[in-house]
Design goal:
Strand order of the largest sheet: 1-2-3-4-5-6-7-8
Helix content: 40-55%
Strand content: 5-15%
Largest sheet: 8 strands, parallel, barrel
Number of helices: 14
Order of helices and strands: HEHEHHHEHEHEHEHHEHEHHH
Distance between the termini: 53 Å
Number of domains: 1
Shape: globular
CATH superfamily: Aldolase class I
CATH architecture: Alpha-Beta Barrel
Radius of gyration: 19 Å
Length: 317
């Protein structure tokens, strides 16, 4: 029997959750995703050391304050790593907007356009790039505008049903609900050490979102993310896409057991879905303690890693 990884690829688009070129070459995923944390981790690789010097030199020529130079260099690095990834995958790469802009719609839109311009100058068509944005109200509004501009988006740090509904209503191309971080929160609150796949709160959240999207005919793609174990992945087999870290891809590749499809598109509902206005969105998010805490925590973590990445770049000035 083929490995569970190969069986999964037959029912779900597998995406590599890494910026590691060697790992992407090994696992040959359709798409790949990056974020500030993964880019920061990439700085540990000797492969990328020349890139940081090049990025700082390029940014210095553009001029501006030290802050501007470092910010431009960070964008250069993100795009160049994305470009290199696109050389070895057939699909698309997700590149994240600075998390510190998560509550600024206009700045998010401007940053997204800047990243796309950098990609196009490096020879990459915008159709091969997804702009990753945190699923705040402001981020969703930015994504709605970008989608109208022909720039497709990946809405990340998504933990609640309210966020998912707002993204679908905004016409967002893809969402990344975070399975493992939901599990982390529930483990910490309940003290329960293990949840089976079918009862995992992160799995249940993605399943609810997937069923809602399919029953109401939303085109937004559901891509489960942030997995803690292969049991979670197997419980979401059949989801539109799953973005998986190299270590979990290895585990799936070594397992030759039977993998059964768990998510199957539901029949279309005759009921029209109800869109959320801003107050309803914020209230729905507020009522979900886990989502409120994990969204804020995720933004802080990505922002901290962005700052660390910029600090690392200064060493190459």
């Amino acid at each position: 029997m083929t490995s569970k990884l190969e069986q999964l690829k037959a029912m779900t688009t597998v995406v590599a959750d890494t910026g590691d070129i060697d790992a992407i070459k090994k696992w040959a995923p359709e798409d790949a995703t990056t974020n500030p944390s993964l880019l920061l981790k990439a700085t540990e690789s000797e492969i990328y050391r020349p890139l940081f010097s090049t990025a700082m030199g390029w940014a210095a020529k553009r001029g501006g304050s030290e802050k501007d130079i470092v910010a431009n260099a960070a964008d250069y690095v993100a795009v160049e790593i994305g470009r290199r990834i696109l050389e070895i995958i057939p699909g698309r790469v997700s590149t994240e907007v600075d998390a510190r802009l998560s509550f600024d719609t206009r700045a998010t839109v401007e940053k997204a356009h800047k990243l796309i311009r950098l990609y196009e100058k490096s020879g990459v068509n915008k159709e091969r790039v997804l702009i990753k944005i945190a699923s705040t109200w402001e981020g969703i509004r930015a994504a709605q505008e970008l989608e109208r501009d022909g720039i497709q988006c990946n809405l990340t740090l998504l933990f609640s049903f309210a966020q998912a509904v707002a993204c679908a209503e905004a016409g967002v191309y893809l969402i990344s609900p975070f399975v493992g971080r939901i599990l982390d929160w529930h483990k910490a609150k309940t003290g329960k050490a293990h949840y089976a796949g079918h009862e995992d709160p992160g799995v249940l959240s993605v399943t609810e979102i997937y069923n809602h999207y399919k029953s109401h005919g939303y085109k937004t793609i559901v891509m489960g993310a942030s997995f803690r174990n292969t049991e979670e992945i197997e419980a979401l087999a059949g989801c539109d896409r799953l973005t998986i870290s190299p270590d979990l891809l290895e585990q799936l590749n070594q397992d030759h057991g039977q993998l059964t499809r768990k998510l199957i598109p539901a029949e279309k509902s005759e009921l029209s879905p109800l869109p959320l206005d801003q107050s309803e969105f914020r209230w729905g998010l507020n009522q979900d303690a886990m989502a409120t805490e994990k969204l804020a925590d995720g933004i802080r973590r990505f922002a901290e890693d962005q700052v660390s990445l910029e600090k690392r770049l200064r060493e190459f000035a």
